[in-house]
């Protein structure tokens, strides 16, 4: 594992190793044990989209590992004024030990990895959000003790989160049902990749338009915003289309009684999820947000130690 661009590229062993490192680093942090594994290493963090969790968790994580994080907004670096990915990759590879990038085009992340010679971490593209999904699976594992055989239901937009959930669940042997309206389904290539992994892991993949079909007997219910970054102009139309996909008490009651709720955040309460669900006792959203820190530290250790 040289980079983290897509969960599909990882082996089950990679994922297990990330989880066990994350578990150890989380425990040590709470015990006050220092773990400066990346002492004197540097991580460039390129952002062409907004962020709260990704930025803060990577920056604090790198600090806790003894390294130095650099926040590089695309408004400030020459990439934002048209310098090529090729030149940026060449130059930054001479200064840094790793790059985390959040951007629009997935191919920009792949090109950064292709043209540079340091580890590249995908901090979200329009197509995928692998750091988030590894964290989500880790969070479920913490709460349920195992992943294999559980069922996750994703309800809403077939976006970057849904795509990476397909990759992640298929890899670890969780069943996944995705309910999204016509025209807003998951990426076809990603569905095909997930199906390949599902054949090996035994996970069952269901794609449906009906949220009630998706959530039936689910152990985990997951939703995300209906309006991702870059889609702001479509907001009014999307809210109309997605309203039947709201995660509310009625929908939730069709899942298993102990079903937990996940949302990558930021959440738009009373759109994709009602307040009583996201603020309810079965919601893990803040554990999930916290775990970004621990899981991404494990990812950086694996790629940059
Ligand atoms: N979930 C997530 O990636 O949040 P941010 O956009 O705040 O980084
Ligand atoms: N689907 C959302 C995820 C935010 C973390 C977006 O891309 O804006």
From TrEMBL:
Carbamoyl phosphate binds at residues 51-54, 78, 102, 129-132, 264-265, 292. Coiled coil: none annotated. It catalyses: carbamoyl phosphate + L-ornithine = L-citrulline + phosphate + H(+). One of its GO terms (molecular function) is ornithine carbamoyltransferase activity. Its EC number is 2.1.3.3. Transmembrane segments: none annotated. InterPro entries: Asp/Orn_carbamoyltranf_P-bd, Asp/Orn_carbamoylTrfase, Asp/Orn_carbamoylTrfase_sf, Asp_carbamoyltransf_Asp/Orn-bd, Orn/put_carbamltrans, OTCase_ArgI. GO terms for biological process: citrulline biosynthetic process; L-arginine biosynthetic process via ornithine. One of its GO terms (cellular component) is cytoplasm. Its main location: cytoplasm. Residues 2-142 form the Aspartate/ornithine carbamoyltransferase carbamoyl-P binding domain. Residues 148-301 form the Aspartate/ornithine carbamoyltransferase Asp/Orn-binding domain. It is found in: Cytoplasm. L-ornithine binds at residues 160, 224, 228-229. Belongs to the aspartate/ornithine carbamoyltransferase superfamily. OTCase family. PANTHER family: ORNITHINE CARBAMOYLTRANSFERASE, MITOCHONDRIAL, ORNITHINE TRANSCARBAMYLASE, MITOCHONDRIAL. This is Ornithine carbamoyltransferase.
């Amino acid at each position: 594992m040289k980079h983290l661009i897509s969960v599909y590229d990882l082996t089950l062993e990679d994922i297990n190793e990330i989880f066990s490192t994350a578990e150890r680093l989380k425990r040590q942090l709470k015990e006050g044990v220092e773990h400066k594994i990346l002492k004197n290493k540097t991580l460039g963090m390129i952002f062409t989209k907004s962020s709260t969790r990704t930025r803060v968790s990577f920056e604090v994580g790198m600090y806790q590992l003894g390294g130095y994080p650099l926040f590089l907004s695309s408004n400030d670096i020459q990439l934002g004024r048209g310098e090529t990915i090729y030149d940026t990759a060449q130059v930054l590879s001479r200064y840094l030990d790793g790059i985390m990038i959040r951007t629009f085009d997935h191919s920009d992340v792949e090109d950064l990895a292709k043209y540079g010679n340091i580890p590249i971490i995908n901090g979200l593209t329009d197509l995928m959000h692998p750091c988030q999904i590894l964290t989500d699976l880790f969070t479920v594992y913490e709460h349920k003790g195992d992943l294999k055989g559980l069922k996750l239901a994703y309800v809403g937009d077939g976006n970057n989160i849904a795509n990476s959930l397909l990759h992640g669940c298929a890899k670890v042997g969780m069943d996944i049902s995705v309910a999204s309206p016509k025209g807003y389904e998951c990426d076809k290539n990603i569905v095909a990749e997930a199906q390949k992994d599902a054949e090996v892991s035994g996970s069952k993949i269901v794609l449906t338009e009906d949220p009630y079909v998706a959530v039936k007997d689910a152990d985990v219910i997951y939703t995300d915003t209906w309006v991702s970054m870059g889609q702001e102009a479509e907001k009014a139309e999307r809210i109309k289309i997605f309203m039947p996909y709201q995660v509310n008490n009625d929908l939730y009651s069709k899942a298993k009684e102990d079903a937990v709720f996940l949302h990558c955040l930021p959440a738009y309460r009373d759109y994709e999820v009602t307040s009583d669900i996201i603020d309810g006792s079965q919601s893990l959203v803040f554990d999930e947000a916290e775990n970004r820190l621990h899981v991404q530290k494990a990812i950086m250790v694996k790629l940059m130690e």
